[in-house]
Sequence to fold (74 residues):
Amino acid sequence: MWFAGGGFKGGQVYGQTDEFGFGAVENPVHVHDLHATILHQLGLDHERLAVRFQGSISASPGSVHSKVVKDLLA
Fold:
C-alpha cells in the first residue's frame, strides 16, 4: 500500500512477503490494524466508531481489538 504524507514514514518498506507475494512472512499487519492506523492518523478513535446493538458489535471500521501500528507512523 502506498501513502502520500499523512504522518506516515516516507520511503520505508514494512514487512516481507514470500517468494510468490502470496502471504506475509515478516511483520504481518491485519486489515483491521491498518484501518485503525489510518483512522488514528485522521484523528478518529476506531473503538468509538463501533456500532453496538443489543450488547454486541454489529459494525465497525476496525475491530475493537485492533491496534494502531506505531512502526508506520512518523
Q: What stands out?
A: Strands lie at 16-17, 24-26, 51-53, 56-59. The chain is about 15% helix and 15% strand.
